[in-house]
Design goal:
With 146 residues, the chain is α/β, with parallel strands linked by helices. Helix content is 47%, strand content 21%.
């Protein structure tokens, strides 16, 4: 791999979708991701989110626990019907062990407590992306290398 290839890989942007009716969540996440290679897309409702996801790939979806037109379980159920479903991270001011256990039990990736904290968000989002990448690229036949 030459230097140009290395630069293009390291500068590749990765899409992330935030589903939240709260303006402060969108702004806080944008501030956290400002210096990263993540490109944030915003949805205020489940409907907005799936309008976006019909035409775009977002390996990681961060979703508020309760939405104006549903909740994280509704989102997770719809994501599960997609060909390459994104990893779902749930956010809540009331994030506790019960919610975390429930999210994992139903197939979500993780829970982030609000207000969002930089180190926690960066770690969870990066690990979710790695899990998604491994799941979908790992499912493909490996290329033979010399």
């Amino acid at each position: 791999m030459n230097t140009q290839d290395t630069q293009s890989v390291s500068q590749k942007t990765i899409d992330l979708l935030l589903i939240s009716p709260f303006d402060e969540d969108h702004q806080r996440l944008r501030d956290i991701l400002r210096h990263s290679n993540w490109r944030q897309h915003d949805a205020r409702s489940e409907r907005d989110a799936f309008d976006f996801l019909q035409a775009n790939v977002a390996p990681v979806v961060i979703c508020e626990q309760e939405l104006p037109d549903g909740n994280w379980k509704d989102v997770l159920a719809r994501l599960g019907k997609m060909q390459c479903p994104p990893m779902l991270v749930v956010t809540s001011r009331l994030a506790d062990d019960r919610l975390w256990s429930e999210v994992l039990h139903f197939g979500g990736y993780n829970v982030l407590a609000k207000p969002l904290h930089l180190k926690e968000v960066v770690h969870v989002v990066a690990q979710a992306w790695i899990g998604w990448k491994y799941r979908w690229e790992g499912a493909q036949p490996a290329a033979l290398t010399a």
